[in-house]
Amino acid sequence: MATKIDLVKEDKTYFTAKTNPQIIEFPKVSYLAIEGKGEPAGKAFIEAVQALYPLTYGVKGLCKKEGRDFGVAKLEGLWWVKSNRPALEVPRKEWYWKLLIRLPDFVTSEIVDKAKQEVIKKKGIDLLKEIRFEQISEGKCVQVLHVGPYSTEPETIEKMKKMMKENDLTENGFHHEIYLSDPRKTPSQKMKTILRQPVK
User: Fold this and answer.
1) Which residue among 80, 85, 131, 165 has the highest number of C-beta atoms inside a 10 angstrom radius?
2) Domain extent listing, the chain
3) C-alpha 86: how far from chain center
4) DSSP tag of 171
C-alpha cells in the first residue's frame, strides 16, 4: 500500500500563519505553475485553476502507483503588476498572476511531463501544455494570516508593510497568497488566506 503524505499537516511552517506578521525563512519548494493575466476569479483565472487540478491528480496517480501518495495541497498565487503605480491602483484586469499547487519533494519534472501527456490524452485540455514544474526559493519572508474577504486584504498588507519598515526590510519578490478556505463553502468573513512577501 502506498504511503501517503499530507503537506498541509506535515509542513505547518508553510501552511499556517499568525494574525500578526512574522519573519520566516523558506527553502526551495516544488510546484505545478501556470501564469496568466486578468482579475482574480475572471475567465482566464478560472480556466487556469480548472487545468491545474486535473494535472495535480494525474501526478498524484502516477506517484501512488510507485508507492508514494500525497494529498493535494492548497491553491496558491503569486501576484504582480507591470507598472510604477502601487498594485491596488492598477485595474484588476491588468494584474498578472502565477497560480501554484505545491508538490512533495519526490515529484520530478519527468513525472509531471508523463502525467501531462496522460491527462491531455484523457481530458483534452489544451491549457495543460502551459503548466510547468517549477522550483521556487523565496528565502526570508514576512507573512501573516488574513481573516475575512479578499477585499479587506489591503488592511492586512499595511500591517506587513509597517513591520517591514520597522525592520528595515524591502520587497524581494512577488506578493504570495495561499488560499486556506474554499470561497464556495466558507462565509466571506471567515475566509483564511496566508499573505507572504519575500524580503531582503
Assistant:
1) 131
2) 3-198
3) 21
4) B
